[in-house]
Design brief:
The protein is α/β, with parallel strands linked by helices. The protein folds into two domains: about 50 residues, DNA polymerase, domain 1 (Orthogonal Bundle); about 300 residues, Aldolase class I (TIM Barrel, Alpha-Beta Barrel). The protein has ten helices and 14 strands. Strand 1 and strand 2 form a beta hairpin. The protein is elongated and about 70 Å long. Bound molecules: iron/sulfur cluster (SF4). Iron/sulfur cluster binds next to loops. Its cofactor is [4Fe-4S] cluster. It is found in: Cytoplasm. GO terms for molecular function: 4 iron, 4 sulfur cluster binding; metal ion binding; rRNA (adenine(2503)-C2-)-methyltransferase activity; rRNA binding; tRNA (adenine(37)-C2)-methyltransferase activity; tRNA binding.
């Protein structure tokens, strides 16, 4: 039998494990604090535990299921992409982005993806497998350790040594104040979170737990390609996690081509689910729209999108994302003029609309570029 994985184990489960090992319950709370507050990656670092317990944890439990295979940093050092191998050899990618006042980690929820979106590198891998909750949580803890290693005086450019021994030069001065860990989390890496809903939800609860990592629900965003059952489950879940829905087209004919799952959940049903989410949670929804030159970026398509969203009176925000290039793809990124013209149509219709400033395009770490070393 595999060793129990400590990441994403609930505190009661951890207490039960420790009880079975003849340990008092408070040891579980110590370990929880070590994992999620001190960000310990190794039992040896848990110096408030007895030596014998540290050794038992090292031999009979799995702490970090991720092995760093490769990491790349953008030229300014503010975006870092990590390629990890999981215990069965499957690989995934995670992206960390540092901003002046926050650090955001983009987490993968599956290795590969079955959704087949025509503009996305991950789709070329197909679905290899769902990630466990612990494998998702581990990505956040890796990013947090990276951020902590960057906590240099805010006025000095600096370099950071990660736990894996790599060194990456970063304009760490971009951080106006040192951060202790990642401040924001987006489930927008490889995979469709709602196709792995139960494990994804376990990871969310683990990260949200006030006794553990204690990340606020409003600091988390989940992005879905429009799986209606997942949107409706989230609407009833009672946690104010931000919801982003990838739309990418104003009509079903085009969306069927770009996002094949649209044949199962057409736009009308996706927007109805979004409306339910808004009514039940009182929160707005973000619609993501990747702009591909000549495919979905015409002004008449912007007008159709504006009318569609206005007709539903959805409380929403539209996020335009100029498509990020993939090697060998016949698609082209919309030029800035077309992007701004598209945006202007939506704004003129009274919609809140922004253009996403992409990070890490040169290291294939941007939206739609993650291929986990497999493509
Ligand atoms: S865009 Fe998202 S849902 Fe579509 S194939 Fe890529 S990872 Fe999967």
């Amino acid at each position: 039998m595999d060793n129990p994985s400590l990441y994403a184990m609930t505190l009661p489960d951890l207490e039960a494990l420790l009880r079975a090992w003849g340990q008092p319950a408070f040891r579980a709370r110590q370990i929880y604090r070590q994992l999620y507050v001190n960000l310990a990656a190794d039992p040896a670092a848990m110096t408030d535990l007895p030596q014998a317990l540290r050794e038992r944890l090292a031999h009979e439990a799995t702490l970090n299921p991720l092995r760093l295979v490769r990491s790349q940093s953008s030229a300014d050092g503010l975006t870092r992409k990590a390629l990890f191998a999981l215990p069965d050899g499957v690989q995934i990618e995670t992206v960390l982005m540092i901003y002046a006042d926050r650090a955001t980690v983009c987490v993968s929820t599956q290795a590969g993806c079955a959704m087949g979106c025509s503009f996305c590198a991950t789709a070329t891998l197909g679905l290899r497998r769902n990630l466990t909750a612990g494998e998702m949580v581990a990505q956040v803890l890796w990013a947090s350790r990276e951020v902590r290693s960057l906590a240099v005086p805010a006025t000095q450019p600096g370099h950071a040594h990660s736990e894996e021994g790599a060194t990456w030069w970063g304009e760490a001065r971009a951080l106006r104040r040192p951060l202790e860990r990642v401040s924001n989390l987006v489930f927008m890496g490889m995979g469709e979170p709602f196709a792995n809903y139960d494990r994804w939800w376990d990871a969310v609860q683990c990260l949200h737990n006030p006794q553990g990592f204690n990340m606020g629900a409003r600091s988390m965003t989940v992005s879905t390609v429009g799986l209606v059952p997942g949107i409706l489950r989230l609407a009833d879940a009672g946690l104010p996690i931000n919801l982003a829905i990838s739309l990418h087209a104003p009509d079903d004919a085009l969306r069927n081509e770009l996002v094949p799952v649209n044949t199962r959940y057409p736009i009308r049903e996706v927007l109805a689910a979004a409306q339910t989410y808004i009514e039940k949670t009182g929160r707005r929804v973000s619609f993501e729209y990747v702009l591909i030159q000549g495919r979905n970026d015409h002004p008449h398509q912007a007008l159709a999108l504006a009318k569609l969203l206005r007709s539903q009176s959805l409380i929403c925000h539209v996020n335009l994302i100029p498509w990020n290039p993939l090697p060998g793809s016949p698609l082209a990124r919309s030029d800035l003029q077309r992007v701004h013209a598209f945006q202007q149509v939506l704004v003129d219709y009274g919609l809140a609309c922004t253009v996403r400033v992409e990070r890490g395009v040169e290291i294939a770490a941007a939206c739609g570029q993650l291929a986990g070393g497999g493509a």
